[in-house]
Specification:
alpha+beta, 11 helices, about 475 residues, FAD/NAD(P)-binding domain, 6-stranded antiparallel sheet, Cholesterol Oxidase, domain 2, single chain, about 20% strand
Length: about 475
């Protein structure tokens, strides 16, 4: 079973010479990611290497993380496996080296039994989360060096700043794309309050899931009715901003003991995860449990006190889709994002099952030694509705947060598909000289974090252009 994102990638691969079987297999490999310093690929099942796309992703993963035998990382995006987390085929404990303070936390010391489909059982240990067939409890590979995150700026931009063909301009706000007829010829940029136009033979927008669609809509590329209401002349009627996805997540907060808690705000916010499949109707690894040494994923509800940790569950596979719209034609005005997470009943049902399993795990005997006080009291609103489907659904709709893995506001697809904004070569339909290369082009959110897939797309398109 393949996601829409995989089908679209397969179509792109066929355009570059792959047959149907090869393209379908390879598409599974490409759905990969990193976020929150986590370097994670979707598990690769029965995939044969193929040409430039496979080489691009495999080189990125191997150069960034190093080989399974311990080969050192050598690529611009550096990641490392957490050596302090140990396990066995069926782990006796989800634990970290106690000498590593950044590896402490709720999944860092004591044994925990993931609960799935109402039955308590241990998940298998998977020491390399990016290995083929990896499933179960895994330490996170992280993109850090000496405790400091290695961003794409660190890995790619800083080493290239001296190149003669590169100009980096800070404090510049892109307003819109400039056209000559049906061809994009430049961008209008606001610097120090003054608008200037920068011209180029090819325009590539990489402003992300929020601002790439916003720039397109201010340029007249987007849903025609919406643009007309804002007084924007319609250049191309396309579903820009429609179909947004993210990973909805719910956290059960844990009042950690001083021994189990992290020691400083710079310590790792998470150590390990559990990837699993919800049932026969779900894609492989459509669900994820995560440890949280800090309960900080939601900015609105973040608990920055020590020792507040938690367990989280999110949906890797999603059916719900949101909408991004402009609030004004003014580039200073932020767009409005309505994610509509859990608006599809299939998502709500799986998250309901996941949070019940998470709650059972959080108040189980394995967790008792690492918490101080009552888990039920700390999560009183959740536990008050846990046994009632309707009330729990209302609670989830009101409290679920996104995992900050937004995608799909400029979706890639076949030119004849009503949801398509860019073709498999990242070109905006109906205009020349304009592409989008970032996570907004993913037809669906990947079954993992998003950044490594985005880096791969950027590297691949840079090679092709």
């Amino acid at each position: 079973m393949f996601s829409t994102w995989e089908r679209m990638l397969a179509a792109s691969l066929r355009d570059h010479g792959a047959d149907q079987a090869q393209a379908s297999q390879l598409a599974t490999l490409i759905v990969a990611s990193v976020e929150g310093t986590v370097a994670m690929c979707r598990a690769r099942r029965d995939i044969r290497p193929l040409d430039d796309v496979t080489a691009q992703l495999e080189a990125l993963v191997q150069h960034a993380i190093g080989g399974q035998a311990g080969a050192p990382a050598s690529g611009p995006a550096h990641f490392g496996r957490r050596r302090g987390v140990r396990g066995r085929a069926v782990p006796r404990a989800w634990r970290a080296d106690p000498d590593l303070p950044h590896a402490a936390g709720p999944m860092g010391r004591r044994g925990l039994r993931p609960v799935r489909r109402g039955a308590r059982r241990r998940a298998p240990w998977a020491p390399d989360v990016n290995a083929p067939h990896a499933s179960g409890v895994s330490p996170y590979p992280i993109n850090s060096r000496a405790g400091r995150r290695v961003t794409v700026n660190d890995g790619y931009l800083e080493p290239a700043r001296s190149l003669p063909g590169l100009t980096v301009r800070g404090q510049a706000l892109v307003d819109r794309v400039v056209f000559s007829g049906d061809r994009a010829v430049g961008v209008q940029v606001i610097v120090d309050g003054r608008a200037t136009t920068e011209y180029a033979d090819e325009i590539v927008l990489s402003a992300g899931v929020i601002h790439s669609p916003a720039i397109l809509m201010r340029s007249g590329v987007g849903p025609a009715d919406h643009l007309r209401r804002l007084g924007i002349t319609v250049r191309q009627d396309l579903p820009v901003g429609l179909g947004m996805q993210d990973h909805p997540m719910v956290v059960v907060e844990l009042p950690l003991t001083a021994d189990a808690a992290i020691k400083t705000a710079d310590d790792r916010h998470t150590n390990v995860c559990v990837r699993f499949t919800s049932g026969p109707d779900g894609l492989p690894h459509d669900m994820m449990f995560v440890s949280l040494n800090q309960n900080v994923l939601s900015m609105e509800a973040a608990d920055t006190r020590f020792p507040a940790g938690g367990f989280g569950v999110w949906l890797n596979q999603n059916h719900s889709r949101g909408v991004l719209t402009l609030t004004s034609a003014d580039p200073q005005a932020q767009p409005e994002v309505r994610e509509r997470m859990l608006s599809d009943a299939r998502d709500l049902e799986r998250l309901r099952q996941g949070v019940r399993a998470l709650a059972e795990m959080a108040r189980g005997p394995e967790v008792a030694p690492i918490v101080e006080g009552s888990v039920e009291t700390r999560n009183s609103r959740l536990f008050a509705v846990l046994d009632d489907d309707a009330e729990l659904d209302d609670h989830l709709l009101a409290t679920a947060v996104d995992a900050q893995h937004g995608t799909s506001t400029c979706r890639m697809g076949a030119p004849g598909d009503a949801s398509t904004v860019v073709d498999p070569s990242c070109r905006i339909l109906g205009v020349d000289g304009l592409r989008v290369v970032d996570a907004s082009i993913f037809p669906s959110v990947p079954l993992a974090n998003t950044n490594l897939a985005t880096i791969m797309v950027g590297e691949l398109m840079a090679d092709r252009l």
